Amino acid sequence: MNEDPIDASIIDLRVATLRQLFNEMDPSPLRERDLNPRTEEYIVGWCRELPRNAALCLHIHVDRSDEESSDPAIIGESIRHFFRGRSIATRLRLRRLFAHGRIALVIGLGCLAVAFGLSRLLEDFGPFGGFSGIVKESLVVGGWVAMWRPLEIFLYDWWPILADARLSDRLAGMSVRITCKNTEATPRATHP
Fold first, then answer.
1. Can you tell me the distance from the alpha carbon of 177 to that of 53, in angstroms, rounded to the nearest whole number?
2. Which of 41, 96, 144, 165 has the most CB atoms around its CB within 10 Å?
3. Per-residue confidence at 185, pLDDT binned at 50, 70, 90?
4. What is the structure's pLDDT at 1?
């Protein structure tokens, strides 16, 4: 039996039965079933508090075993499969955000170019009093406001999404150990 990495950070989780780990409404086979949202939230929350570079081990304490989901290898693979899927979905969301950002950038640059062009055009026609200065400055400000969303996407919005993808990658590679309370057997571990 493989042992957990010596320097692994342990995420302890206690359930009455292993069935509680998974979403009961999901009709998929156990290997492809989604985690219960509360289980996912608990695991992700603990992982966020652990050192970033440490290996992870999920230690599941079970009060009583159930027949359908008693194989620790299947449980471990199911949990890792779930987080691999989350990683893929998060990276897809990141790609869509960048695609949206590129479109927003083209639109923003177009608006900025038109705003500067109209501002120059007003300048060339000469002064029309204080009103032309207000219109000219409003055009320039409007052009820069059009750049707000693409700058927000490319400077700020993508960092948390990438962090979530990396977190899911870490969770997809963690070992899973299951200890049943009603049997005094040694803990069963599964590794990626």
1. 20
2. 165
3. very low
4. 35
**Facing residues of 11 across strands?**
58
Beta bridge partners of 179: 61
Residue corresponding to tokens 């599964």: 190
Q: How far apart are CA 159 and CA 152, in angstroms?
A: 11
Tokens 């050192």 identify what position? 51
pLDDT above 70 for 188: no
**Closest Cα to residue 46, out of 167, 178, 176, 191?**
167
Amino acid 70: pLDDT: 63
Mean pLDDT of the chain: 86
User: Model pTM?
Assistant: 0.79
Helix, strand, coil percent content, the chain, rounded in steps of 5: 60, 15, 25
Listing DSSP states for 18-58 in one string gives: GGGGB-TT--S-GGGPPBPHHHHHHHHHHHHHS-TTS-EEE
Describe the strand order of the beta sheet including 188-190 as a list of residue ranges: 9-15, 56-62, 175-180, 188-190
Question: What are the E-state strand segments in the chain?
Answer: 9-15, 56-62, 175-180, 188-190
Regarding beta strands 175-180 and 188-190, do their DSSP bridges make them parallel or antiparallel, or are they unpaired? antiparallel
